[in-house]
Amino acid sequence: MSNRALAENFKDIDKESLKKTLEEVIERTFDLEKEYKLLKKSVKEFQNLIAQTIESQPNPIWIVERNDYKNIFLQNSASDNLSSLIKDINPQLSEQEIEQDNKIFLVKINQVDGDYDKIIITATDITQQKRSERLASMGQVAAHLSHEIRNPIGSISLLCSTLARSADKDQKPLVEEMKRAIGRVERIIKSTLLFTKGIGVTKKRVPLEKLKEEIRNSFESYQKTKDIDFTIELENKEIYADFDLMIITLQNFLYNAVDAIEESNDLSGEIKISFKKENRYDTITVTDTGIEIKDKNILFEPFQSTKTKGHGLGLALSLEIIKAHNGRIELLEETKGFKIYLEQNQTPLL
To answer: Which of 25, 129, 160, 259 is 20 to 30 A from residue 56's alpha carbon, by CA?
Structure first.
């Protein structure tokens, strides 16, 4: 039908009514367009809200396809460096522990309610928690073994002292070597028990000369095969500390220094212990020319050692002792060694 014929057929129709209907349709169309734009804006804002909420979470979060974990729909920046973690997930388990890059993560899988074909995966770093659990377990075992070993070692030490008095000239070096070995075992036992039981500090005035004498004796009695130049510069002053605990601390640093020189390729080495007052701190610095520290990340970790014959408690115990003094230990950068900071006594002792 032509347009003219169509127009003639509309002569009898109420044109005003048709016009009004068309205007209403056009107006409704505009309203629908506005509603669509508002709905689109609301959806966009809701998506942004979800993205911001996920991004604000400190733990890695992924929203993935239910049947394909590798198809990631949304994730936060905390998960950027852990994308390979998805590959190790067992989809049959709603909760599991996965180890990656020397860290342990607790991974949880949550199904999204409704008709969404998505699931939410979260990963929480529980490395520190696991570490604490392992340390507690290892500490209990170590403490039990130390208790069991302490009595027979004490008896052997007493027998060695008796044997030393009656030994002839040729036997004495062997007996002295036995005494040094037993002394090392006794130090390990003492450190282990002290670390597992906790540290109580009794601060008093400690003359540095007294510390110097004890440390010098410790150096002389410690087993070594190389020519080591040991310099100890502790001024004729006093520090405010627990004498026995400070001896243990300095012995640990000293023995580590000796062992580092023993493990080096050099035929000789140098160790220096010095004292200095810095602002409100008394500082003691221990440096050596031995081999460099292999792994600084485990330096103060209990039951971890960077040397071949270490038991992994010396530096960890020393750190706990200095912390109990409200001090700190600093690893030196330019020179190989450590710096101990102890707060100076602000109240005169009577």
So the answer is: 129
Domain boundaries, the chain: 15-55, 59-125, 134-198, 201-350
Type of residue found at 303: F
Q: CATH code for 201-350?
A: 3.30.565.10
Cα→Cα distances 38→41, 44, 108, Å: 5, 10, 36
pTM given for the model: 0.55
pLDDT 10s digits, 201-243:
888 888 999 889 889 988 988 888 899 999 999 877 889 998 8
Q: What is the per-residue pLDDT across 275-307, written as a single tens digit (0 to 9) for each?
A: 998 888 899 999 999 998 887 877 777 666 666
CATH class for the domain made up of 59-125: alpha beta
pLDDT of amino acid 218: 86
Q: 268 to each of 124, 164, 228, 286, how far by Cα in Å?
A: 49, 30, 6, 17
| Segment holding 137, helix H or strand E | helix 127-166
